[in-house]
Amino acid sequence: MNTKIHSVKYNFIMNAILTVSSFIFPLITFPYATRVLGVDFYGNVSFGQSVLNYFVLISSLGIPTYGIRACAKVRDDDIKLSQTVKELLYINLIATIVSYVVFFISLFSVSKFYQNKEILIINSLSIILNTIGVQWLFSALEQYSYITFRNILFKIISVVLMVVFVKEPSDYLIYALICVVSASASNVLNYFYMWKFVDFKKTGKCNFKPHLKPIFIFFASSAAINVFTSLDSTMLGFLTNDRQVGLYTASIRLKNVLVGLVKSLGTVLLPRMSYYIEKGEKEQYTNLLSKSFNFILVLSIPLTVFFMLFSKDCLVFISGSDYAAAGLSMQLIMPTIICIGFSSTIESQIMIPYLKENVVCFAVWVSAIVDFILNLFLIPKFGAAGASFATLIAEATSMSIQFYYAKDEILPALKKIKVIKIVGAIVITMVVVYFISCLHISNLFILLCVNAIVFFGAYFVLLLLFKEKFTYDIFISIFNRRKKDVTHE
Predict the structure, then answer these.
(1) Is 392's pLDDT higher than 90?
(2) CA 327/CA 310 separation, integer angstroms
(3) I need a surface site. Which of 98, 266, 353, 462 has the fewest CB within 10 A?
């Protein structure tokens, strides 16, 4: 394999750029779409997307995660890599056919689905697009620069299409199609780019058996995880109305972007961790694990606190005053940033590399059941806020179970982290922001900008003053590099 494998730092920067773009583009498209379509039509589109997630899940099985690990282990051998990709792609194609059969049967047998058939058919394009995209191959080969620039290109295209073609609520079907283009159309490029790394002519007969057990374990885990991302909107659609779906979607949209930012390092490190374990490089593995947990704490805690404090202001600014009612829902959902940050790190850097995906499967299924039961009781009475609270409890349950089974690896890593410095910085920052809020700034945009600058500025300055190791080491590294560059000049 002649493919250049970049450093973890480079891959993290690329993935961070991708995550930031995922933050910036929704800031452009989300306010526009919610205002043009209105709560009801936007909720209708969100319902269709949540339903199709189940069929994408069926078509992909557990390959998106398993494929990264399997390909990362053999990435140094062209023939083994090609053989692995061929076998996984064929399994994926078979599952895709099954998914489409189930989809069309459901479309004409479930009345709620048939009422929304146009939205569902448009979103069904994502099933085949996700299959041919083989995203797991490029992640395993750590091709994050390609992944990043490709995704940004299609996000730009989708923004242009949205501004040109989505003008009024009746354009909601066009908006749904543009969402598919933004999320999945770039996978067509993946299919053609894939042949740069693999050659099926070098391979032999397919042997699916070694892949089936881990694939279905990952599938079971993915099915439960999908409950967290799709079941709430689906149940809101069945138990309440499109308005509640729209409010809930508005409250979790920003949370999903922030979760992506917090999980970005773990996403980058999965193939590297699997590679280290396969090669027996335990010391490198342990060092990265400790830094990962430190990163999660430093980033997730301030993000959670800030957007809980200013949830209503953020919703009104991004989506309009019609979405102010989603303030409580957003406050309840924000602590899941911390829970998901921890559980995803445990999963991607401990459980999966050590072949303990059955523990992940158990944890997420228990949590999925908790989420479903709580939704049944809370959604009819509390609507979007009830769904948010159910998700919070479910995510906390998943994190707790995985923490218990991985405590022997986690506790030594956490002992190296001075959590009291992070918490102390947050508490002091909240006091500073409280006095700033007394200024009574009337312009919402200026208010949010001032609060964000003061909050995150004060927080990171305090971390440096407290010499919190992770933040301080990064600052010193950047300062020394800058000093070296100036000296050379």
Answers:
(1) yes
(2) 9
(3) 98
Q: How many angstroms separate the CA atoms of 269 and 33, rounded?
A: 34
Helical packing angle, 444-465 and 469-488, nearest 10°? 90
More confident position, 263 or 128: 128
| Residue 115, number of CB atoms within 10 A of its CB | 11
Instruction: Please give the Cα distance from 239 to 419 (Å, whole number).
Output: 42
Token pair for 179: 């969402």
Spatial distance between the Cα atoms of 273 and 259, rounded to a whole number of angstroms: 21
* pLDDT per residue as tens digits for the range 281-297: 666 776 777 778 888 88
Tokens representing residue 350 in the block: 């401990």
- Separation between Cα atoms, residue 129 and residue 483, nearest integer Å: 47
User: Does the pLDDT at position 40 exceed 60?
Assistant: yes
Q: Is the dihedral of CA 388, 392, 395, 397 positive or negative?
A: negative
Reported as a single tens digit per residue, the pLDDT across 221-240 is: 777 776 666 677 778 878 88
With left for phi above 0 and alpha for psi between -120 and 50, is residue 100 left, alpha or beta? alpha
Q: What is the DSSP letter of 142?
A: T
Give the Cα separation of 66 and 278 in Å (integer).
15
Output the six-digit token pair for 393: 């409890």
